């Protein structure tokens, strides 16, 4: 049985199955990326709910694994050289899981880097912009009288959806016929933008038929449907 005692996070969220990947997350766009990937790949894992509404991601135990204080994070008891490894940042975790298993990432070097660039597109652009739209459209930011910030993030989000729409023209998935970590990285954010953030009309989402069809295909995948609910809140 794996010894995870070197990771202080396990004192607050004990591992019942320490030989499995330990996932510390919540059902946010960043969080569900990893549960979806794990479901798609089929690796056994034990999920732990990090209650961000109670600021649990800022506790010393969580910060010991992820100093950035954001979900998700993982511990893989069977990391490189058969030693446990802890990782944070969803893009890095997606890449790690794909390389660990040889799944969800093309073997061809050129297509591999092309896939990674679309993961970075989500991390550097889509996630931050969509998150700001959510803040200014649905949450506390909506009370700000000056609507220029909302308009700026709305316009930039619409531009980014257009970039993705252009990429998906004539393609089933971001990489053509290959469903990859690029799709997993983006699905939760696009879903949240028009669902949880209620910004469908704001950004004119229905103008982007390729993205809409891609989102429908992605959400129909059983692993996606299951991953969107893990870790459960109760």
TrEMBL record:
Keyword Nucleotide-binding assigned: no
Residues of the GST C-terminal domain: 108-234
Entry-linked InterPro entries: Glutathione-S-Trfase_C-like (IPR010987), Glutathione-S-Trfase_C_sf (IPR036282), Glutathione_S-Trfase (IPR040079), Glutathione_S-Trfase_N (IPR004045), GST_C (IPR004046), Thioredoxin-like_sf (IPR036249)
Superkingdom as given in the UniProt entry: Bacteria
SUPFAM superfamilies: GST C-terminal domain-like, Thioredoxin-like
Record key words, sorted: Transferase
CDD domains documented for this protein: GST_C_Ure2p_like (cd03178), GST_N_Ure2p_like (cd03048)
Chain ranges of the GST N-terminal domain: 18-105
GO terms, molecular function: transferase activity
Family: Belongs to the GST superfamily.
Name recorded for this polypeptide: Glutathione S-transferase
Gene source species: Mesorhizobium erdmanii
